[in-house]
Amino acid sequence: MTLAAVPNSHVRPASLVLTVLNEGHSLPTFLRSLSAQRHLPSEVVIVDGGSADDTVEILTAWSPPAGTAVRIVERPGANISQGRNTAISLAESPWILVTDGGTVLDPGWIESLLDSFDGQPTPTVVSGFFRPTGESLVERAIAFTATPRLTEIDSATFLPSSRSIAFTRDAWSQAGGYPEWLDYCEDLVFDLRLKELGHRFAFAPLATVTWSARHSVREFMVQYYRYARGDGKAGLWAKRHSVRYLAYSGGIALVVVAFWQPIVLIPLVAAGSLYLSKYVRRVWRAREEFGTGLTRGLALVPVIVVAGDLAKMAGYPVGLRWKRQNRPS
């Protein structure tokens, strides 16, 4: 089968799927970015998880570009995995594109993802990329601190976020779909299952979406608590989380010792500075995209990093406890 565009048309045989929940504030921008794609999908399937705002009204009032069919399904209470699996099961194309309603698609997003399926050897999964944005200073500081830059990515080991990914329906089916028992980190578990099955991944760095971070540090902590809880439920990254506990425990011990031996503050400050330098450099290198308030944004980096670490350390054991009690297969 070929993924070439239909003659005299920019519509290509692919199904774009996404789940939404109370996205009324962001959907208009997303839909405009979808309509502005250089190449359009033949189908869009959207599952609403029970929005209490005007999300469904916005979707039903939307006039899609010519040649693109739209299907809107309401499934109140569905988590993101259930919503995605429902959408994919209803999709008609063998090529599936996945994103989130809170993103903005670059004009070549669909084109770059689909063109990557023509590579050799032929991939069954294409990883897109994402870049941060934000209206307020705090949103930008959180987004640019937490989001890796393209230069940090190793395409051979990169695990794509489902805010920017494409795969074949057969790959999804073989992986058993997204894990519906998992409320967060479901896309990582899905990625790892695909790799375990031997599916070929291609990296399409030009298939980029933008996303906005949480509005406050508190909301960011809630998000990262849930991410870490998802890691615990799925049994992911045990070594990484263990190192974090050990590092912070060692730091607290050195602070206590510093009351009697202030000199120990020197290695503590050095270690902390070395750890934070990665995130400071990340924000600094994005200074042109960051815009106004860069100095204040850099000053927020330590707060954001520590807040995220504390949230992860709180969430991970909760997930582990859930895993012991439920033991999903």
Automatic annotation (TrEMBL):
InterPro entries: Glyco_trans_2-like (IPR001173), Glycosyltransf_2 (IPR050834), Nucleotide-diphossugar_trans (IPR029044). SUPFAM superfamilies: Nucleotide-diphospho-sugar transferases (SSF53448). The keyword Plastid does not apply. The keyword Transmembrane applies. Keywords: Membrane, Transmembrane, Transmembrane helix. The chain crosses the membrane at residues 245-276, 297-319. Residues 15-135 form the Glycosyltransferase 2-like domain. Coiled coil: none annotated. This is Glycosyltransferase.
